[in-house]
Amino acid sequence: MSDAAIFSLAGAEPAPRRRLRPTAGRLLLGLGLVMLTILVLITLLAPLVAPFDPSATSPQSLEGSSSQHWLGTDAIGRDVLSRIIVGGRTTLFITFTAVSLALLAGLVLGLLSGYVGGWVDEVIMRILDVIFAFPVFLLAIAVVAALGPTVPNLILTIAIVYTPAMSRVVRGPVLSVKKWDHVEAARSIGMSEWRIVTRHVLPMVVSPIVVATSLTLAQTIFTVTALSFLGLGPPPPDPNWGGMLADARQFMELAPLTVVGPAAAIVFATLTFIVLANGLREVLDVGSER
Question: Which architecture does CATH list for 72-283?
Fold first, then answer.
């Protein structure tokens, strides 16, 4: 049966589509998409864009900016710009993979908790509350330290610590949407629960999920770089932004670009997802009255 027929049976009109907000929101979204495109292109084309081998050493240690090394070299003569470009692949790979896993787990748990309710909701929420009770960064440190500082362990850790927040983002709207008239009408005519969830519940909670995912990406970049800074990130010799900051901190006065470069990359990547999230929030009108 079509959606229109279901709405007719329910005696209600379909939920109105979200209206686009004013130009400022679209400009923010456009700027965020441009920044994201730049970030993704540089990351994907890193081997072609990087001017030098990021692991190649030279006698020119702690060299300042020059026509050959735009951001100088580090303590063992490696090109800082090349390491920033290639290191972005590692940082962003961990970030996107971990958030994708957290989003998948959050969708499953949030939908189960919000739609099924009852004891299922209680069990899922109590387990997630235990994880949610710990500060994200401290929990991440504890898990990575226990499992070991490898890329798979780092991805798994970040996925675990951000799953409770993603689950809550999904569960809240589902609790409301499942009571709407057209959902009740679909259930009354015998439509399967799977079809109700995928066709009538999930589409209505996409907007807050998209915004929350963008913000979580920004937070995850900081978490990944902070863990790497503490020595709990990807092991050498593969470059990553947090590890570069850790290596360069003792040479800040002699070669400030070794710190400024990776710090600027972290800020740009984080700002990209913050701008994108705010643009999406405005354009999708998340949080406003329907």
Answer: Orthogonal Bundle (1.10)
Rounded to whole angstroms, the Cα distance separating 5 from 12 reads 10
Domain ranges of the chain: 72-283
Q: Which long-range contacts (CB under 8 A, 24 or more apart) does 3-8 make?
A: 3/182, 3/199, 3/200, 6/182, 6/185, 6/186, 6/189, 6/191, 6/200, 7/181, 7/182, 7/185
Asked if pLDDT for residue 59 goes beyond 50, the answer is yes
Residue 80 has pLDDT above 60, yes or no: yes
Give the three-state DSSP class for 14.
coil
233 close to 221: Cβ distance less than 8 angstroms: no
Per-residue DSSP letter, 16: P
Rounded-to-integer distance, Cα 110 and Cα 64, Å: 51
Across the chain, mean pLDDT equals 85
Return the pLDDT at 2. Answer: 47
